[in-house]
């Protein structure tokens, strides 16, 4: 179904300017924090957080000693917020760019997803899976959270189901985890899938 208005940079900038950011958890969420705490990636790993918003995950990883964390967002207000909160976060790693136009070289080792996929026009979902695969090295990981629910209001956010999502990712990824997250924040409990997918060779 075509959307009434484009979900472009002007749309998202306005949401930040007006403070209409209900998706923003205000801190890193437990599923991502717990994953980061146990992951064995070398500290030199290249990590991308697309549609990062205010970038609490980037702040966490930066503080944990990962120097190659990149955030991409089309809303400059979101990137500015991260820059102000974390002044020593490398400015060159704040990519004010469309996710679909990001350079695929050099490749990333890890992509982190949280409420970006659900913010996109659902017609872009196959392209999202394809672009994540293009951005990752073979064996690289796409991990994070996807809503496993339908919303009564018109999106964004746009909901969906595990079966639907699997069809987008299966051509490019092996599924390590794709299950209800046990530790979502309260308003999302039982309505989020934790995904950990590795890019096929
Ligand atoms: C619902 S917000 C989620 C932000 C963040 N992940 C969070 O959980 O707080 C969606 C974000 O994606 C950004 N965005 C939307 N379309 C984009 C695109 N094509 N490329 C990059 N960022 C995009 C918006 O500016 C917004 O910051």
TrEMBL record:
GO terms for biological process: methylation. SUPFAM superfamilies: S-adenosyl-L-methionine-dependent methyltransferases. GO terms for molecular function: S-adenosylmethionine-dependent methyltransferase activity. Pfam families: TPMT (PF05724). Keywords: Methyltransferase, Phosphoprotein, S-adenosyl-L-methionine, Transferase. InterPro entries: SAM-dependent_MTases_sf, TPMT. The keyword Calcium does not apply. The keyword Transit peptide does not apply. CDD domains: AdoMet_MTases. This is Methyltransferase domain-containing protein. It comes from Hymenobacter aquaticus. The lineage of its organism: Bacteria, Pseudomonadati, Bacteroidota, Cytophagia, Cytophagales.
């Amino acid at each position: 179904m075509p959307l009434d208005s484009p979900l472009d940079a002007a749309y998202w900038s306005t949401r930040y300017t007006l403070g209409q950011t209900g998706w923003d958890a205000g801190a890193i969420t437990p599923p991502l924090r717990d994953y980061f705490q146990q992951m064995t990636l070398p500290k030199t790993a290249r990590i991308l957080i697309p549609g990062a918003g205010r970038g609490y995950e980037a702040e966490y990883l930066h503080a944990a000693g990962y120097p190659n964390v990149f955030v991409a967002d089309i809303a400059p207000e979101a990137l500015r917020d991260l820059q102000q909160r974390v002044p020593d976060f490398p400015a060159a790693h704040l990519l004010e760019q469309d996710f679909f136009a990001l350079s695929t070289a050099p490749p990333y080792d890890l992509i982190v997803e949280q409420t970006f996929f659900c913010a996109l026009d659902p017609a872009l979902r196959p392209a999202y899976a394809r672009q994540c695969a293009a951005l990752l090295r073979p064996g690289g990981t796409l991990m994070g959270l996807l809503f496993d629910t339908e919303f009564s209001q018109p999106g964004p956010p746009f909901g969906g189901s595990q079966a639907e999502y699997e069809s987008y990712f299966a051509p490019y990824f092996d599924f390590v985890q794709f299950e209800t997250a046990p530790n979502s924040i309260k308003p999302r409990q039982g309505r989020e899938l934790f995904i950990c997918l590795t890019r096929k060779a």
